[in-house]
Amino acid sequence: MSKTSIPLPVPENVGKLYDQILKDEHEYDQFEKFNHQLHIGYWDDPSDQSVPMGEAVVRLTDLMIERLKVGAGDHVLDLGCGIGGPASQIVMNTGANVTGVSISEEQIKLAARLAANKGVAERAKFQRADAMQLPFEDESFDAVMALESILHMPSREQVLSEARRVLKPGGRLVLTDFFTRAPHNHDAELHPAIEGFCRVAMITMADVDDYAAMLHRVGLRVRELRDITEQTMDRTWRATLEIVALNDRPVPYDLNDLLGVEEFGCLLVAAERP
Questions:
Q1: What's the structural domain count of the chain?
Q2: Which residues does 42 contact at the CB level (< 8 Å), separation at least 6?
Q3: Non-local CB neighbours of 227 within 8 Å, separated by 6+ positions
Q4: What is the pLDDT of residue 31?
Q5: Looking at residue 241, what is its pLDDT?
Q6: Cα(162)–Cα(149) distance, integer angstroms
Q7: Distance between CA 23 and CA 174 in Å, rounded?
Q8: Could you count the other beta carbons within 10 Å of the beta carbon of residue 122?
């Protein structure tokens, strides 16, 4: 834990944050060019300037889907489903069924709308729920995905424990998370730009040194723990700044402050319930 005290996210407040972001039709329609995905992008070659953000966000979801290892008839839980783009992508790419949950009422409403528009509403269902206390029976799902959502939750370990509980034996958990990159010093202050972003976005940064142990503590077997910072963060900040420049609405945080901050890392994690 850093000396800097970042408040733990409060689920209800996170829900209200996203409700506010998505409160009008114009804001929702803007995400069509990003395939209705509210997460960072992934560039196989970060120097390739020809790949736009809309393709990069789909590429990251593809990486997640590959690691879920699901097919027709399987049931996937999408923790923090956003406005439904990844869930619809899972259904269309694999034939699996998806249940998406979010703490945001607006996200659930828009995710259901997107599934209907794409003709997958029978296989992609959405409901409001808190990932800290999932309203599902034990061993209900073949796989669980948490795409850039666990960072909004007050206890990663509790969410991982809930994911393990609802997974069938042999089922996979795949997630992305933000973490403070090496060199790691538990007594060090957070970079001011990271601290500012965490406060505004209602997130915390993971401790990568403890991630494998945390997965083991909740009963999950590590399959992959990969730093994908170089393929994601700088290009995402720059692409987001371009979008903000075209948007008349004020934003609460200047992402210019995060450019070149190498301590802000992104982790791709895959684990399995034995």
A1: 1
A2: 56, 57, 59, 60, 63, 228, 231, 232
A3: 181, 208, 265, 266, 267
A4: 67
A5: 87
A6: 14
A7: 29
A8: 10
CATH classification of the domain holding 237: 3.40.50.150
| 244 alpha carbon, distance to own chain's centre | 21
- Identity (one letter) of the amino acid at 89? Q
Query: If pLDDT is split at 50, 70 and 90, which confidence band does 220 have?
Result: very high
**Verdict on whether the full-model pTM lies above 0.85:** yes
The residue segments making up the domain with residue 146 are: 11-272
Listed residue (1, 12, 57) closest to 204, CA to CA: 1
| 96 belongs to a structural domain | yes
Residue 111, classed as helix, strand or coil, is helix
Q: How far apart are CA 201 and CA 26, in angstroms?
A: 21
DSSP string, 158-209: HHHHHHHHHEEEEEEEEEEEEEEPSSP-TTSPPPHHHHHHHHHHT---B-GG
Is 6 among the domain residues? no
Catalytic positions are 148
Nearest residue to 195 via CA among 15, 38, 4: 4
Torsion angle, CA of 271/155/152/95, rounded to 10 degrees? Answer: 30
In terms of DSSP bridges, do strands 124-128 and 75-79 run parallel, antiparallel, or are they unpaired? unpaired
Is residue 267 in a domain?
yes
> For residues 121 and 115, is the Cβ–Cβ distance under 8 A?
yes
- Domain for residue 2, yes or no? no
